[in-house]
UniProtKB/TrEMBL annotation:
GO terms for molecular function: cysteine-type exopeptidase activity; dipeptidase activity. It comes from the Eukaryota. InterPro entries: Peptidase_C69. Gene3D superfamilies: Penicillin V Acylase, Chain A. Belongs to the peptidase C69 family. Secernin subfamily. One of its GO terms (biological process) is proteolysis. It comes from Eudyptes sclateri (Erect-crested penguin). This is Secernin-2.
Amino acid sequence: QCTYLEIEQAERTHAVVLSRPAWLWGAEMGANEHGVCVGNEGVWTREPLGEDEALLGMDLVRLGLERGSSAREALEVIVALLERYGQGGSCKEEPVPFVYHNTFLLADRAEAWVLETAGRYWAAQRIRGERALVVPGGWGALSSPSLTPPPPAFAEGSRNISNQLSIGREITAEHAGLRQRACSQGWWNGDGEFSFAEVFSLTHQPARMEAAKARYRAGKELLRQHAGHITAETFMAILRDKASGICVDSEGFRTAGSMVSVLPRDPTLPCVHFFTATPDPSRSVFKPFVFVAGLKPAPQVRSPTFRDDPAKKVPRFQSTVDRRHELYRRHQAALELMEKDQERGQKLLQTLRDLEKQGLEGMNALLAGTVAPRPEELADLFFDCVEAEMKFYT
């Protein structure tokens, strides 16, 4: 059972860790036990939006993680389900539908991909480089999907997305009917090189797309500035950048959650996933999570469930419920303190940064092989970090 649709179950699914809006089944971003990471962004294209309930892009994020043991396999899962079921339905917990199509970032230890969609149509680009590094702005025709590597000329070391189509002519794989669809709609005459972004982007962009262009350019420039020496801390700083619009905190809208993953090429080393689990990364703590046996659950970051959930009753979203989890509530109170009492707020923020630094130093030592924590320590790691953060709020 996904957010709106029930689909056939897979014979086997992988363990996943997800950052998601509490009312729906899918996720904005997450990782699985095999070191696969997927995140998505909304886009508006020339293809009509489907208000009929289908799969959400966020459902596809979770399905790719649950069913894909590599980034490529996750991509194959997503495009197969997209072609079969389509995407549609409201992406917001409000009575007035808010609908969009989706772009995705997918990465594992070995490679990274960008997947962009317009209705049931899609194009994908493989990102090549010594280190495939991917941040949000958060593939040849396939019927039975199989992917072909792109020519070396398209090699890149980093990539970002931000609420707009960004795959031009560097297409590694695509929907079997993509170009035919473009020709039939009069969007492309069939001559010259085919650019997915040029052909499928709206002629007149909504205002939010104009802001996305600036955010995309800023993300690309920040990555360029740090090329060759990008670390987890670099990504955290980029995700906290308010001047660029990557970290949003204006007009009542705030970046909801942030995630940074370190995926070592050495398979003997664990992948480490850092989550804020709270809004506004500039005032949040990135806490490390590692997949190990016997993981200690962290109920402090799980939102409550409701017997009469307005997201599940049709018509949907006719009432509201408080979905904030315990850490969210305490963090929200701390944000209010930071805004009211600047001096105390700065002290608290410095304390939180020190806590984050400890986690980063511990994970760097783990990945460098200078420490070897016991499995039970790693199993308790995320829980302990959340508990420590909550104590600072009280």
